[in-house]
Specification:
The protein contains 6 helices and 13 strands. Its cofactor is Mg(2+).
């Protein structure tokens, strides 16, 4: 079986990721880099979407066009996942956006759910789960379980992340072997505080300029 983990290898992604890593990068530049990489991830992760044909009219004559057939859902994990949302909405303007609030407890590093916008019934066919960093993998796994409990099959979920750790990606793979994961690069190490090394730092703080010394 082909690998379900897709690591994008592209010079444009490499240069933007290098900019994101630098401490000197401003919040504005960081947001722009996250947006650009998210857009490229979204394009690659949507290659196999089913299309539906229709007959339209140009100024010259008729043509056969296509639209995206499945209903698309976006589930950004607050708050850092919001940095990926606008790029995905550029690709899927009619997508339904359901926010998930999960934070990682600092001592145990365990995920804690505090918010869910998922309605009672499933209203989408394909879900893109948006989480910029997969560090220990705990938050992503918790979000995935929320989506499964909602009623979306794992084969209809695609996890998009800017950066993952080797351990975090392996954990998600082991718990959800049929899940498609799209990531721009994978770093080899985690610190004893569960931070990706060399990583990007705290994505939410860097996106929204809330860094503290």
């Amino acid at each position: 079986m082909a690998s379900q983990v897709h690591v994008l290898k592209h010079p444009l992604i490499n240069t933007r990721l290098s900019k994101l890593r630098q401490t000197s990068t401003s919040s504005k530049e960081f947001r722009e880099g996250i947006h650009d990489i998210s857009l490229m991830l979204g394009i690659e992760a949507s290659r196999d979407l089913e299309e539906e044909q229709f007959v339209g009219q140009t100024p010259i004559g008729t043509f056969t066009g296509t639209t995206i057939k499945p209903r698309i859902g976006l589930t950004p994990i607050l708050r850092a996942g919001m940095g990926m949302t606008d790029a995905m909405l550029n690709l899927f303007p009619a997508a339904q956006v359901y926010h998930l609030g999960i934070f990682r407890e600092k001592v145990t590093l365990q995920p804690v759910e505090y918010y869910s916008k998922l309605p009672s019934d499933v209203t989408v066919d394909i879900v893109y789960l948006l989480d910029p960093l997969i560090a220990t993998g705990g938050t992503a796994c918790a979000a995935l379980q929320m989506l499964l409990d909602w009623g979306v099959p794992v084969k209809h979920i695609k996890l998009l992340c800017i950066l993952g750790s080797q351990a975090g990606i392996e954990r998600v793979k082991s718990e959800f072997p049929d899940l498609e994961i799209w990531v721009s690069t994978i770093d080899p190490e985690l610190t004893n505080k569960g931070l990706i090394s060399p990583g990007l730092g705290d994505t939410g703080d860097r996106l929204y300029n809330t860094l503290r010394e």
